Structure formats: C-alpha cells, structure tokens
Amino acid sequence: MKPGIVAFAFGTPATIFSNRRLAEIATGWAKELEAPVYTQRDISLGGDVEFEYAEETFEPPPTLRMAREAVHWAVTRGIGELYVVAATPHRDRCLRDLRVAADEAGVEIGIFGCLPTPEEYVEDAWFCLDSADPSTRSARAWWRRERVVRLMPLSLYKRVAS
What we know:
With 162 residues, the chain is an alpha/beta fold. The chain has one domain (3-161): Rossmann fold. The chain contains 5 helices and 5 strands. The protein has helices at 17-33, 63-77, 88-105, 139-151, 154-161, and strands at 3-7, 37-39, 51-53, 81-85, 110-113. Strands 3-2-1-4-5 form a 5-stranded parallel β-sheet, with helices on both faces. Helix 1 links the parallel strand 1 and strand 2. The radius of gyration is 15 Å and the shape is globular. The chain starts with a strand and ends with a helix. The mean pLDDT is 90.
C-alpha cells in the first residue's frame, strides 16, 4: 500500500514551538516512509519533502474538515495508508476524525498514528503561550474546549465542522 502522511497543526503561526516540532516529525516520517505529506499552512516543510497544503477557509480549520480533505487527497493520489502526525493532546481526535472521514467517503484506508517518543513529547510541552489560537496556549484552555468537542454527539459534531 502506498503511504501518505497527514500533519495537523497545533496552534498558529508556523513559528511557534509546537508547529516547528510537528514539522520536524512529519519530515522525519516522510523521509522514512518515502511518502508525501498533506498538511496545514502552519506546518512549514522544506523542499526535500513532497507536500500539499490543505485549503483553509477557517482559522483554525475544524479538524474534521481537514480530515475530509486529507481523505480526498489520499484517494486522488492512490494512497492506501495514512500516518497521522499530531500533538499528543490532539492525536486521538485527529485519528477519530480521519476514520469518520474515510467512512463518510466510503473508502478503506489504513489510519495509523505516528507516535513521537513519549519522554520527549509530554503533553504539556505542546502548549505555547505565543500561539494566536487561545485554545492551544495552555492545557486548561485546551481541555475546556476539547471536553465539549469529544462529548458532543457525532451527528452534531459533523454539522459544526461542515
């Protein structure tokens, strides 16, 4: 199966620590798997990695919308396996949303998490006070919003993300 990588930003802009770290992880996996990357504009990848930016019309774009675009990207490129690069607090929802997007599209794609080394990437290290996205500045702000999003019925969540 042809692999592809989906890298989800965690906050904005590309210069914050979390997004620079995600760019490094995505680059490493892209080279190891010899795979293209689908990502957001807040993940800056170098010229030695094949990548495509998501179309972003919201700041920040809903995770499910990004997942839907990533599945479409994978299908049009003949990619059968997606490897997810995401911040630790965001990873579970990214994986879930990609699975939902694949189900909605009626396609079978293997979806896997690219796990960074836990000791190096503890959850609290992902939050950046200089993020323009208030929900990614602190664990408290993140989980206040994330709890609501995760407890929301999937049918409502899909409507909100559309």
